Amino acid sequence: MFAQSLNLLVVAILYISSFASAHNVLLPANGRRCFYENLKKDDEFTVSFQYGNRDSESNEELRGDLVIFGQNRNDILVSIRDVTYGEQTLTAPYTGKFEYCFLNERSGVATKDVSFNIWGTKFVDVNDEDDTLEGSVRKLTRLINEVKNEQEYLILRERTHRNTAESTNDRVKWWSIAQLGVVVVNTVFQIFYLKRFFEVTSIV
To answer: How far apart are CA 70 and CA 99, in angstroms?
Structure first.
């Protein structure tokens, strides 16, 4: 019984590690980064992504595009435009090499990066929740990927919001200092003016 449970655990780990991977790449200004996957007909391929900024001082929420091409480069199977994050599942219509590209072609930002995860299944339904070991492992893989993607999205959002808060605090600080300076200058001017106003002059 123990040996059988151990074998099931090993199979589950191998299954998960075979179909999931995570990456983070820097996008060139006005350019793109492309990757390839070899799929057989009816294989399922899922990519989830989140655009971010490697500039720790920036609080701008960056956007980008995702395009998935078929064997023919002009054959666009998926096109997602001007988004900060997303997820897309593609069922291969035929056997071949499929290219997926993250685009930064409409932006000159040189610090934009994209974090993405890819995973897939071969001739199976990822939502099939049957009682077999393979079905249970597929369900577990799908849930783990959903949690992982949500955590990565929250991390990037927290970084963006933190930068925004720090920038706002800096502006409030300098505005307060400027107001204090105006008050001090105004006070000195009033004291000097009143002193001059009440000054007694004598004519000899």
So the answer is: 7
pLDDT 10s digits, 159-172: 878 888 888 888 89
Sheet (strand 20-26) strand order: 20-26, 112-121, 44-53, 85-91
Question: Domain residue spans in the chain?
Answer: 2-160
Is the pTM of the predicted complex or chain greater than 0.70? no
Q: What are phi and psi of 203, to 5 degrees?
A: -110, 125
Residue 82: left (phi > 0), alpha (psi -120 to 50), or beta?
left
Task: Tell me which CATH homologous superfamily contains domain 2-160.
Answer: GOLD domain (2.60.120.680)
DSSP conformation class of 204: -
Which stretch of DSSP H or E encloses residue 24?
Answer: strand 20-26
